[in-house]
Specification:
Helix 3 runs parallel beside helix 4, helix 4 packs parallel to helix 5 and helix 9 runs parallel beside helix 10. Strand 18 and strand 19 form a beta hairpin. This protein has 15 helices and 21 strands. The protein starts with 9 loop residues before the first helix and ends with a helix. Helices cover 30% and strands 20% of the residues. It is globular.
Length: 537
């Protein structure tokens, strides 16, 4: 009788054994198919195709909406955007069992032996690439509910390490209780896991700082002086506090004071203590605004005040004749998260479970709010979640929603809603067998990838030009689709103007023989892209 290992080579069997030996005996373990996975992804190469009819704006484009399998899209983005994404928000499938879970990777056996294995493997592959895409100071937000919250926390610790865990935020997603529950509990919340560097924090309320006594040190507010709970055992914080002018003894709180005797004496000498008139009162300390190290305070782990799931549904009801998407997240919820994870006006935001396009909507809102120029990349699938076979979520929901939000629309009441502005290029993933890349890759696909790799706005490939050029005075990229004398002269002219020039060509050896300027380098196409695309995730 044959078994599933029969087709493995000796090297693959050894790798499988070593992989099993490396598995932890305690912690998160699930069934994985390493060899099948690597076979599948090493046999193809992914490129993007541009659809100008669905795109918004004439370009060059800075925002991308990508239709296709998000695993394919992520592999492409790793080639073009590794280390460049400042903020990721995803709302992955919750694995609730309400709908058959569509697993798009081809290497997974449908008969997984562990209950959560399929979902964990699905997420693991994508999170590994997401980690590669994040910048050093980047942040990732992941929405989830109780179905997979516990396994997801362990998985995120595995991928990002516990050191990068920031918080497990709680969002009260339901306004009213669900009385149809079978176990007597109305689950009114979801979670948002946060990993990365840090969040910005809440804006400090400066209105609480006053100066009623005309203190020359400026406006101030009163601060608590009682010690923290973990300071109960510190003897140097437990002492009687006495007002030297009145002699009133305020005793010592059970947790002690926040400052030791030396620091407290300094505060008294600086006349920063606010003394109550009665002994049972609690002295407080003057805290000056000028001494604050930051304009922000701590961000509460309870988020989305008065933002509920139905708000997301209403947003789509306003745009579409018939709501085409179930349980979309409210854009105000994502807006609140982006205020924390994307404080810089030029940040790049990624959502590779984009669904109806809520994240793009939130980015447009935030840019309109603070005048920013944040960019987004959204990846949405061709699947329909309402059973309509001809419905394409990315094309018919995500892109159409963003078009309406950006350019304006008329709501159900017949009222004109002004557009928030913005644009995007609509792209589709396309797999090319690695063995056929040389013959099948198109010039526009090459030029598109090169622009994204070099952080250039996405401009169309000009079929009438043998040489495509982008960049600025300090750095240029050029793609030579066809070797022509005029193109060589133009490259030399650009180089002579100063700055670095990288030329991508199908025949770099010939160019090296003709162009000897020191600030020009050459790369071979398509080998450069294939090598950068890489293999296993």
């Amino acid at each position: 009788m044959s078994d599933k290992y029969e087709e493995y080579s000796r090297e693959e069997l050894l790798r499988l054994i070593r992989e099993r030996d490396r598995k932890p005996s305690f912690g998160l373990v699930w069934e994985r198919k390493e060899i099948e996975h690597e076979r599948s992804i090493n046999n193809d190469f992914v490129m993007l195709e541009y659809d100008p009819l669905i795109s918004v704006g004439d370009g060059p484009h800075q925002n991308l909406v990508i239709e296709g399998d998000n695993f394919d899209a992520l592999r492409y983005l790793r080639m073009t955007h590794a280390g460049k994404v400042n903020c990721i928000y995803i709302d992955p499938p919750y694995n609730t069992g309400n709908k058959d879970f569509i697993y798009n990777d081809r290497f997974i056996d449908k008969d997984d032996v562990y209950k959560h294995s399929k979902w964990l493997e699905f997420m693991y592959r994508r999170l590994l690439i997401a980690k590669d895409l994040l910048s050093e100071d980047g942040v990732i937000f992941i929405s989830i509910d109780d179905n997979e919250a516990a396994p997801l926390k362990l998985l995120l610790d595995l991928v990002f390490t516990p050191n990068l865990f920031i918080a497990q935020l709680i969002w009260k997603s339901r306004q009213n209780k669900d009385n149809r529950t079978k176990n007597g509990v109305s689950v009114d919340h979801e979670y948002v896991f946060v990993y990365g560097n840090k969040l910005r924090g809440e804006d400090r309320n400066q209105e609480q700082f006053k100066n009623p006594d005309s203190d020359p040190r400026g406006v101030w507010t009163s601060g608590n002086m009682v010690g923290l709970a973990d300071e109960e055992a510190r003897p140097n914080l437990h002492y009687d506090l006495i007002d030297p002018d009145t002699g009133i003894n305020y005793g010592k709180p059970g947790q002690g004071w926040r400052y030791d005797k030396t620091r407290m004496a300094s505060l008294i000498n600086e006349k920063r203590i606010l003394w109550p008139q009665k002994a049972n009162g609690r002295p407080r300390v003057k805290v000056f605004l000028s001494e604050m190290k930051s304009d922000y305070t701590g961000y509460s782990s309870i988020i989305g005040n008065d933002i509920y799931t139905y708000s997301g549904t209403r947003e789509l009801d306003e745009i579409f004749e018939k709501n085409p998407f179930s349980f979309p997240k409210p854009s105000d919820l994502i807006l609140e998260l982006l205020r924390q994870g994307s404080p810089n006006s030029n940040d790049l935001i990624l959502d590779f479970f984009a669904g109806s396009g809520t994240t793009g909507h939130a980015v447009a809102k935030l840019n309109a709010e603070d005048g920013g120029n944040r960019r987004f990349i959204l990846v949405s699938s061709t699947e329909s979640n309402d059973g309509e076979q001809d419905k394409n979520i990315c094309r018919d929901v995500c892109a159409e929603r963003l078009r309406s939000v950006m350019t304006g629309y008329t709501n159900k009441k017949g009222e004109k809603v002004a557009g928030l502005g913005g644009e995007f290029a609509y792209m589709r993933t396309k797999r090319i067998p690695v063995s056929q890349v040389f013959n099948k890759i198109q010039h526009d696909q090459v030029w598109r990838a090169l622009q994204l790799i070099h952080d250039q706005p996405l401009a169309d490939f000009d079929e009438g030009m043998a040489l495509q050029v982008a960049g600025d005075a300090d750095k240029h990229i050029a793609y030579l689709a066809k070797l022509e004398e005029s193109s060589l002269e133009k490259i030399e002219s650009i180089a002579n103007a100063g700055g670095l020039v990288t030329v991508y060509s199908w025949q770099p050896a010939q160019l090296r023989q003709r162009i000897h300027t020191s600030n020009v380098s050459f790369e071979k196409i398509p080998e450069f892209l294939v090598k950068r695309f890489g293999g296993a995730a």
